[in-house]
Structure formats: structure tokens, C-alpha cells
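Reagents: none. Just compute today. PiggyBac transposable element-derived protein domain-containing protein.
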Amino acid sequence: MLHTRESLTVDEQLVATRGRCNFRQYIPSKPGKYGLKIFWCCDSNTAYPLNGEVYPGRQHGAAPAAKDANRIRNLVNRLVHPWINTGRTITTDNYFTGAELAEDLLGVQTTLVGTIRRNKKEIPRELQPDNNRSQYSSIFCFDRQLTLVSYIPKKGHVVILLSSLHHDQAIDDEQKKKPEIILYYNNTKGGVDRMDQMVKTYSCKRKINRWPMTFFNIVDVGAIAAFLVWIKKNPKWNEKRQHRRRLFLMQLGYDLVETHVDRRRQQSQALQKNVRIALQTIGQTITTPQPDAVSTTRVKRRCQLCPRQRDRKVITHCMSCDIPCCPDHHKIICTTCYETFLE
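Predicted 3D structure written out:
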């Protein structure tokens, strides 16, 4: 049985946008193809987002990616740094995996499992594709605390993985003879992908070409984290409903605006028609003032918002604080109450 509870996944997310941006990326394998790239470290089991870093593109004066061998290694070390020396296992794809990274993580009591590109210099020639090898065959290579495995899923194709967690030739899948390293990788590689899928299911983003609006993705990711924490603490909450996350997001959105709704509802005379309809749609009760609420039989008094030397007498009063105020300082409520309302 594979234990994945202590595994973390490091992968990339492409937040789609067509806006003009200096660090917009093009990844043809992604659905959106164009967008901003964010590297994430997520829990492999729950897809809980733990740490993220936006890729700003190659900076001016920096070394080319092919010559900057330490760039990706330093990126992974930054993403997983809060969880080093805790016995965790990091699962990565071939963009991140390397022998130097695995050795760095072993120095902080952290293991690594991931696919590795075939053009890496540390891969022996015997592990490369060979048409003479039979299907479902595996070749293992051991070097101190690192293990390489070359597996043939179909004729002429090879999958190579690096692991500092496994140290034997264990094969669990008897039908396709898959090594335990591959099965562990398949069970833990989807942490970031599941988080990205959840973001695309329910999102607050809108179709717009302004690239700064792309960072509404952070709100979506934060809502996922809040939902996972809530379910962890309240596992029986709507447990029989299949759309628990949608119900949670609806309640979360209402709780976030409840304070502002109550404040606006108290100033019902200043509400525009569409705002009043929106409040009534969500079940808010709004009391409409009577036509005689603004008395016209009052004695004229001096406007308290005009200079005293102006000595302007009026009969209109603010509907909120009931002070006399002239038309220059009064529509429905006085300018002072209006500024307080906007704060």
C-alpha cells in the first residue's frame, strides 16, 4: 500500500490571459496557451495550496535558461523551504527533477520522486529507449541514495523516473509490471492539477484583456484553501450533497458582503433603484420612506453646513442626521453623512 499523506507536489499553473504583458508565457499543451505562469507547491492528497511564486520571465541581464542550471533548483528549494526537515516527499515532473535537486533535498531530510528528461547527463545509456527491450520491462540503476528506473509502457517508448525515497526493485502492478516508483508518482503527481481544475470550475474571474485582472486567481485559490479547511474541521457539513463547494462559496460570498449590505440598507433613501432591487433579490428587507418624511411645514432654519455669514435659511433636513441643510449640501442626505457612508 502506498502512503501519500506526507507528499507535496510542485508544478506549474498557467492563468490564461491575452492581455499585453512582458512576462506572458506561451505553453501550447495548456488549454489557454497564453497566460501568466505561477509555480505552486500543494499537498498531494488534498490539493491544498501551500506556497506559490509568479514567474516574471527572464530578467534583463540574466543568464539564458540553458546556462542557468541552478535557477530551477533554487525555485523548488524556495517553494518547499517551510516544510524541510519534516520527512516529506516532493513529487515533481521532468521540468524540475534532477540529481542535484534530489541531493539538496536529502540534506534537509526531504525525499524526491519525479520523472526526468532523457537528455540529462546523469542517465546511463542502458536506460535510454531500445527497440530490443520487451514491453512492461524495467531496468533499475542505484547510486548511493538515488534510484533510477526505466520502464517500457509500450514498444519504442520509455519512461524514466528518479527517486530518493525508494531503494529496491519492488513491482506492485502484476499485470503491467509497473514499479512501485511509478505507482507512487501517479498517485501524488496531481496535487497542483487538481487545484487548477477546482479553480476553473468556480471562478470569480471575468473575460477581460487587462492582464492585472488575472490575479483574481489568488482569490479563487484562497477560496479553495478556505473550503478545504472548513471541510477538514466540519466533515459532516452537507456531506450528502455533491455540490458542497458551490454551497460553501455562496455562503462565503454572502458573509464577506454582509457588513456592507447592512450598512447600505440603513441608508435606504440613498439607494439607487438597481441596488435596491439587488438587495431585495437576496432577501433583504428595505423600508421605503413615506412621501411626507421630508417635512415642508418646518420652520426655516439656518443651514449648518454653510458659513454663518451666508445666513441661508432652509426647511429641508438631512434624512439621516436631521440637520437643516441647503440644496447645495443636500440631495437626500447631507454631504457629511454621504462622505461617512462612503468610508
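The first helix runs from residue 70 to 80.
Action item: order primers for follow-up constructs.
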